């Protein structure tokens, strides 16, 4: 509010130097506009504070909703939270997209990234058996 206060102070200074009624009327208009601006600025600052508090609360809620328990097991990332219906599910430890499991062409189990980042691991058992180890 420094600039507006400066304008108010300058208007007071001008008031002491006013030469006639016209000068006084202009100065009073400037003072009225400055006071109006000052009151508007107070409202804006109060609104900013309210919005910052609201934003912080929304961030806290979002963080709570997105929070997940994370484990790395047999080189695979497992997550459990709201988006997995509170059940363990497999994810790529490299890019964190869901991971899928199947058998590689030779028949050995493999777990791979569904996002095609190239991550793949060949665990000694199928993904379902690894998921069962987590429970
Ligand atoms: Zn990936």
Layout of helices and strands:
Elements: H1 2-17, H2 21-66, E1 68-73, E2 76-81, E3 89-91, E4 99-103, E5 109-113, E6 120-121, H3 127-134
Antiparallel strand pairs: 1-2, 2-3, 4-5, 5-6
Bound molecules: zinc ion.
Zinc ion (ZN) is lined by residues 92, 94-95, 97, 113, 115, 117, 119.
Bound ligands, each once: zinc ion
Class by alpha and beta content:
alpha+beta
Helix content: 40-55%
| Main sheet specs | 3 strands, antiparallel
Identify low-pLDDT runs.
none
Strands, count: 6
Task: Compute the separation of the termini in Å.
Answer: 59 Å
Q: What features would you describe in this structure?
A:
The chain is an alpha+beta fold and 135 residues long. Helix content is 52%, strand content 20%. Helix 1 packs antiparallel against helix 2. It is rod-shaped. The model has no long low-confidence stretch (mean pLDDT 93). The protein binds zinc ion (ZN). Zinc ion binds next to loops.
